[in-house]
């Protein structure tokens, strides 16, 4: 294990030393690149080098008309955003009103159904009582039924 790290250190040391000398050329013994491809790669590297060395010019100062146009556009975009927000807010209010009405309608239907179920339970219970108790006269049954229903 110690030997493997030694050869790696030697290579690394040579690589670090060699990078400081820019005069050395790399010689490629065998390459699949044709002369045309070499020319294009050389041209690309030259263009890349010239781009990096060029200094970028500062943008030209804005004129009064440009500044006015920017201000007008900003104001108009703000106007459109406020109008869209107002429309959205009114739409949300409308949805709340509609959903509130739907909820109230659903609650009203539920209460009606519960009331009907209660009346049905009372009538069934009364029939059970009347059927089981034969001592109650017909007259009393009619009065009880009137009061229950």
Automatic annotation (TrEMBL):
UniProt KW Cell membrane keyword: no
Coiled coil: none
Annotated GO MF terms: calmodulin binding
PROSITE patterns assigned to the protein according to its UniProt record, in alphabetical order: IQ
Transmembrane segments: none
Keywords: Calmodulin-binding
CDD domains: IQCD
Family listed: Belongs to the IQD family.
Function: May be involved in cooperative interactions with calmodulins or calmodulin-like proteins. Recruits calmodulin proteins to microtubules, thus being a potential scaffold in cellular signaling and trafficking. May associate with nucleic acids and regulate gene expression at the transcriptional or post-transcriptional level.
Protein name listed in UniProt: Uncharacterized protein
Protein's organism: Cannabis sativa
């Amino acid at each position: 294990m110690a030997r493997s790290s030694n050869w790696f250190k030697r290579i690394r040391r040579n690589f670090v030393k060699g990078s400081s000398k820019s005069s050395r050329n790399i010689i490629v013994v065998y390459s699949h690149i044709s002369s045309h491809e070499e020319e294009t790669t050389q041209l690309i590297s030259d263009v890349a080098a010239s781009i990096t060395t060029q200094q970028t010019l500062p943008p030209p100062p804005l004129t009064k008309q440009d500044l006015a146009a920017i201000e007008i556009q900003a104001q108009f975009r703000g106007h459109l955003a406020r109008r869209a927000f107002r429309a959205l807010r009114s739409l949300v209010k409308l949805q709340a009103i509609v959903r509130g009405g739907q909820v109230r309608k659903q609650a009203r239907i539920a209460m009606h159904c519960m009331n009907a179920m209660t009346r049905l339970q009372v009538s069934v219970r009364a029939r059970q009582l009347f059927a089981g108790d034969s001592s109650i006269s017909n007259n009393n049954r009619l009065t009880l039924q009137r009061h229950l229903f």
